[in-house]
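name: query_chain
kind: protein
chains: 1
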Amino acid sequence: MIEKIAGAVFRFCFRVIRKEYTDDIHNSLMQFVRFGIVGVSNTVIGYLLYTVSLLCLRKFGILSGIDYIVAQIIGFVLSVLWSFFWNNKVVFTLKEGQRRNVWKALLKTYISYSFTGLFLNSVLIVLWVQIFHISAFVAPIINLLISVPTNYIINKFWAFRTNAE
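structure:
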């Protein structure tokens, strides 16, 4: 249903700018839409895992003082695994004759998410908040405009790259 709505919106936009909306363009845009849906689910799952982990650690008095850091690590590790599973299954699917080393793709996915989620977002948030004086509450939203497409490109052309048989 989301793909039908997105497809209709994209077709309309292409008509407005008088550009041809080919099957290849449609497939690429729908792949990005699916990546975005997986990303939203990944964000929700990551936050839920963080919250549940933090509550459990605090309830049992485990690692007090650094419990939120441990919960963040648990949330990150498991949500990236979630993201990898769904990206592999519905976003970067294999066509007949293609193959992918799953372990290598998983490792590359963790590297990709570490780069965009930790390094790039940290640099950008300093830029927005300290240099451009943008609210610290708005800055992470602006980061999404850069980190999501960057992560998509890294995943598409590096982490989930396929090999012909």
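note: The CA atoms of residues 40 and 83 lie 10 Å apart.
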